[in-house]
TrEMBL record:
<dbReference type="GO" id="GO:0008270">
    <property type="term" value="F:zinc ion binding"/>
</dbReference>
<feature type="binding site" description="via carbamate group">
    <location>
        <position position="99"/>
    </location>
    <ligand>
        <name>Zn(2+) 2</name>
    </ligand>
</feature>
<dbReference type="InterPro" id="IPR002195">
    <property type="entry name" value="Dihydroorotase_CS"/>
</dbReference>
<keyword id="KW-0665">Pyrimidine biosynthesis</keyword>
<feature type="binding site">
    <location>
        <position position="263"/>
    </location>
    <ligand>
        <name>substrate</name>
    </ligand>
</feature>
<feature type="binding site" description="via carbamate group">
    <location>
        <position position="99"/>
    </location>
    <ligand>
        <name>Zn(2+) 1</name>
    </ligand>
</feature>
<feature type="binding site">
    <location>
        <position position="136"/>
    </location>
    <ligand>
        <name>substrate</name>
    </ligand>
</feature>
<feature type="binding site">
    <location>
        <position position="174"/>
    </location>
    <ligand>
        <name>Zn(2+) 2</name>
    </ligand>
</feature>
<comment type="pathway">
    <text>Pyrimidine metabolism; UMP biosynthesis via de novo pathway; (S)-dihydroorotate from bicarbonate: step 3/3.</text>
</comment>
<comment type="function">
    <text>Catalyzes the reversible cyclization of carbamoyl aspartate to dihydroorotate.</text>
</comment>
<protein>
    <recommendedName>
        <fullName>Dihydroorotase</fullName>
        <ecNumber>3.5.2.3</ecNumber>
    </recommendedName>
</protein>
<feature type="binding site">
    <location>
        <position position="13"/>
    </location>
    <ligand>
        <name>Zn(2+) 1</name>
    </ligand>
</feature>
<keyword id="KW-0378">Hydrolase</keyword>
<feature type="active site">
    <location>
        <position position="247"/>
    </location>
</feature>
<dbReference type="Pfam" id="PF01979">
    <property type="entry name" value="Amidohydro_1"/>
</dbReference>
<keyword id="KW-0862">Zinc</keyword>
<feature type="binding site">
    <location>
        <position position="136"/>
    </location>
    <ligand>
        <name>Zn(2+) 2</name>
    </ligand>
</feature>
Length: 356
């Protein structure tokens, strides 16, 4: 197969940041994805409807003309988030989820939740209104091995929360383990999971291949091969509970290549080709469209996209870096080859750009 045309996909987990970084990364996403669930872990975090509305305005202003891209906003849940704010969020047409970061679990999560018991009233409002809870599913207990944090979170937080609030709708974000796959499959309704390209294509050896590789470091961290295989099986199974979420998370080169490097992998410009590569490995390119364009929209109760996009089977080299002001952004697979590329689609805005 040399060409693959599918419904234009959406990215159900994306970090756009703000200001100059956003201006740099947004075009790559908007060129491919019609919509994205935009993570709220700015500094300070997006905790109110008013802040989410203002952030949405900034994203729209930074969007290339004619891109046809819609940001789907989220709120950052803290122990101080009120039920009133969540009801307000549920009544908007632009807030589509509320993100739970256990405090200290990942980049910009300090304002997150320390004691899950304290957010039960908030979770009750989510269960009642149907606004999905988006979960960074890792415990933060320093005594728990970093590779076991996701599995432990299922037993100590996710399972108890869902038992208490069976109607709560949850997206288990960027799953990385066989336990997470099994848990999602065990629930009949209301629970789904996003999957990143890195967790489909790499196991934890990638972090140490010939030396320490900071550009393969994200959270949840890459896992052992048997977990990668389980996550790849889930993504390519056709099960509508699993869908695309790149977790593309840009950090300047200096912040990654550091004695204490940031967690986060930048993948937006090559994400769809990476997913295609993973599905091709499994002989399941026929299921890429469901994973990338249907399952997420169906879970979020949004219409499927009408436009189409074409992937061409053609080798290309990923740039070694992208400019970012005085710094650089190093993408996943920097300087390496990819097997698929996205065919350029003529956009109504293109003609105006040269005269701007
Ligand atoms: C994300 C970031 O940089 O914002 N980092 C990451 O490693 N995935 C935060 C997150 O999604 O955990
Ligand atoms: Zn993320």
């Amino acid at each position: 197969m040399h060409e693959l045309t599918l419904t234009r996909p959406d990215d159900w987990h994306l970090h756009l940041r703000d200001d100059v970084v956003m201006a740099r990364v947004l075009p790559a996403t908007a060129a491919v994805f019609a919509r994205a669930i935009v993570m709220p872990n700015l500094q300070p975090p997006v905790t109110t409807v008013a802040q989410a509305a203002a952030y949405r305005d900034r994203i729209r202003a930074a969007c290339p003309p004619g891109a046809g891209f819609t940001p789907l906003m989220t709120l950052y849940l803290t122990e101080a988030t009120t039920g009133e704010e969540l009801r307000l969020a549920a009544h908007t047409d632009f807030i589509h989820g509320v993100k739970l970061y256990p405090a200290g679990a990942t980049t910009h999560s300090d304002a997150g939740v320390r004691h899950i018991d304290r957010i039960f009233p908030a979770l009750e409002v989510l269960a009642e209104t149907g606004l999905p809870l988006l979960v960074h599913g890792e415990v933060t207990d320093p005594d728990v091995d970093v590779f076991d944090r996701e599995a432990r979170f299922i037993d100590t937080a996710l399972e108890p929360v869902l038992s208490r609030l069976p109607t709560l709708r949850v997206v288990f974000e960027h799953i990385t383990t066989a336990q997470a796959v099994a848990f999602v499959r065990s629930r009949a309704t209301g629970l789904a999971a996003t999957i990143t390209p890195q967790h489909l294509l790499y196991n934890r050896n990638a972090l140490f291949q010939g030396g320490l590789r900071p550009h393969y470091y994200c959270l949840p961290v890459l896992k052992a091969e048997r977990h990668r295989a389980a996550v790849l099986d889930a993504a390519t199974s056709g099960d509508p509970r699993f869908f695309l979420g790149t977790d593309s998370a840009p950090h300047a080169r200096s912040a990654k290549e550091s004695a204490c490097g940031c967690a986060g992998i930048y993948s937006a410009p090559l994400a769809l080709p990476l997913y295609a590569e993973a599905f091709e490995q499994m002989g399941r390119l026929d299921r890429l469209e469901g994973f990338a364009a249907f399952h997420g929209a169906d879970f979020y109760g949004l219409p499927r996209n009408a436009e189409r996009i074409t992937l061409i089977r053609e080798d290309w080299s990923v740039p070694a870096s992208y400019p970012l002001g005085s710094s650089e952004l190093v993408p996943l697979r920097a300087g390496e080859r990819l097997r698929w590329r996205v065919a350029p689609t003529p956009k109504p805005g293109n003609g105006q750009e040269s005269t701007a």
